[in-house]
Design a protein that fits this description.
Helix content is about 0%, strand content about 45%. The protein is an all-beta fold and about 500 residues long. Belongs to the glycosyl hydrolase 43 family.
């Protein structure tokens, strides 16, 4: 009998394309990170429900070439696969802006991970699977469509055979994201189809040999929320794992859209968990992804939530801090002003890659962000970023505080006021309720977007805080901006050096 329930998503915010493996009683999961450095966030769990980020697979610039100019938002690192074989951890991935497909390895999941070993195959979404005799297969989405298979030496990256076509899916568009699993006497090939939008789906085939021929699962796709009113949408890109009690589970991506039609999602594609049953003919059966479900059996292992406030007292940034494209050593420091994160401008605008930004994923539909900022003679503040053409920021510099909205080709200062000298607190609140005052961009008295972003001089919860502006959140959504990522909220400098004494991210209840 189950003693616990869990809520989906199990890893919230922009954590798409999950891949999982189990080693003993421990689970390890890795996600896509696209243009952000460090790359490929790595999580650990003991129960498939509570996940703690223990690092990033690619945390050295030499591992993650994202050259500027050339790299772009939603480029970089696509869907990874993590596996444990022969006493080592293996991650295979695609860097679409810097070299193609590669493998990295580590003895311990916390690292250090090796430099990339490049594989001479075209396509994206590579997977690794081993035969009992040690033969290693790399399934991947081929450049011409459909799933290809290559026999490789994962140590050297040498392609020993192939690639050759293996299965093209059930007929939906964009068959991709293959994961090859040996279960009993069968090889199962799990793929994504339908595109990563509302038509996203999970399909499967099986064969007696890893080479095929492949038999489609009856009733493919196994899982899709397309055309339903379920609050979780875009379900797909799944991986399988077996728990110690013998039960099977699926991790997959999905989104939580909101707002007036057409509803949009702002947090990006998140990681969800759902149970898998097997029918009498040996096919996996997956029910629609629930918002709440009975948890896997066995021990319950909650993990502590990360501290809401980062006082920057350590010697290194926590693994959840990320930066677009790169984070040059000279652009940030924890030692220049002990107890503060000092950011040094590397570009004059957030509208063009090459600026200084350190942020974290927005992981809750409602939240409050505050930071104490000392601009000195520089300029910087807090930015809510989707990409270079879609971001809102509240910044201080030159004796004034202002709120700027960049939406596509338009950039507008929507509020400004004089600022006192020295350190001050800036704040951003994100609210999903539509019972809020109209923003300067609206005229009907209510927002019809998924949320409202309010910008403050001072702590929004403290007396004396000054509201500056409210903006409709729909313009920082994937459906408006396009791409594969989600919102990232963080600190930046676009002029001189700016010191941040602390940064606080607090989930808040919906109004």
């Amino acid at each position: 009998m189950f003693d616990h329930t869990y809520d989906n998503p199990v890893i919230s915010g922009f954590h798409p394309d999950p891949s999982v493996c189990r080693v003993g009683d421990d689970y390890y999961l890795v996600c896509s990170s696209f243009e952000y450095f460090p790359g490929l966030p790595l999580f650990h769990s003991r129960d498939l429900v509570h996940w703690e980020q223990i690092g990033n697979v690619l945390d050295r610039p030499a591992q993650l070439p994202l050259p500027l100019p050339g790299s772009k938002a939603s480029g970089g690192l696509y869907a990874p696969t993590i596996r444990h074989h022969d006493g080592r951890f293996w991650v295979v991935n695609t860097n679409v802006d810097g070299g193609g497909n590669f493998v990295v390895t580590a003895e311990r999941p916390e690292g250090p991970w090796s430099d990339p070993v490049w594989i001479g195959i075209e396509g994206i979404d590579p997977d690794l699977a081993w035969e009992e005799d040690g033969t290693c297969w790399c399934a991947h989405s081929g450049p011409a469509g459909g799933i290809n298979l290559a026999r490789i030496d994962p140590v050297t990256g040498t392609v020993l055979e192939g690639p050759f076509p293996t299965w093209s899916g059930s007929g939906l568009k964009y068959p991709e994201a293959p994961h090859l699993h040996r279960i009993g006497d069968w090889w199962y090939l799990l793929i994504a189809e339908g595109g990563t939008e509302r038509g996203h789906a999970v399909s499967a085939a099986r064969a007696r040999s890893s080479r095929g021929p492949w038999e489609d699962a009856p009733g493919n796709p196994l899982l899709s929320h397309s055309g339903t009113a379920r609050p979780i949408q875009n379900t797909g890109h799944a991986d399988l794992v077996q728990a110690p009690d013998g039960g099977w589970w699926m991790v997959l991506l999905g989104v939580r859209p909101r707002g007036f039609t057409p509803d949009v999602h702002v947090l990006g594609r998140e990681t969800f968990l759902t149970p898998v049953e097997w029918d009498e003919d040996g096919w996996p059966v997956v029910a629609p992804v629930p918002e709440r479900h009975a948890a896997p059996g066995g021990a319950w292992h909650p993990v502590p939530a990360p501290p809401a406030r980062d006082d920057f007292d350590g010697t290194a940034l926590a693994p959840h801090w990320i930066s677009p494209f790169t984070r040059p050593d000279g652009s940030w420091s924890l030692t220049e002003r002990p107890g503060s994160l000092v950011l040094r401008a590397t570009g004059p605008t957030l509208d063009t890659p090459g600026y200084t930004f350190v942020g974290r994923r927005q992981q809750h539909l409602d939240c409050r962000v505050t930071a104490q900022v000392d601009p000195g003679t520089g300029r910087g503040g807090i930015c809510v970023r989707l990409d270079e053409a879609h971001h809102y920021e509240v910044e201080v510099g030159g004796g004034e505080v202002r709120v700027v909205a960049r939406i596509g080709p338009l950039s507008e200062t929507v509020a400004q006021r004089s600022a006192p000298p020295g350190p001050l607190v800036l704040g951003v609140t994100v609210r999903t309720s539509d019972l809020v005052p109209a923003s300067p961009l609206l005229t009907d008295g209510h927002t019809t977007g998924p949320d409202t972003l309010a910008f403050w001089l001072g702590d929004p919860t403290a007396p004396g805080a000054h509201p500056l502006a409210e903006l409709d959140g729909r313009y920082l959504s994937t459906e408006v901006a396009a791409g594969f990522t989600g919102r990232v909220i963080g600190m930046y400098a676009t002029e001189g050096s700016v010191a941040f004494d602390w940064f606080e991210y607090v989930p808040t209840p919906a109004v």
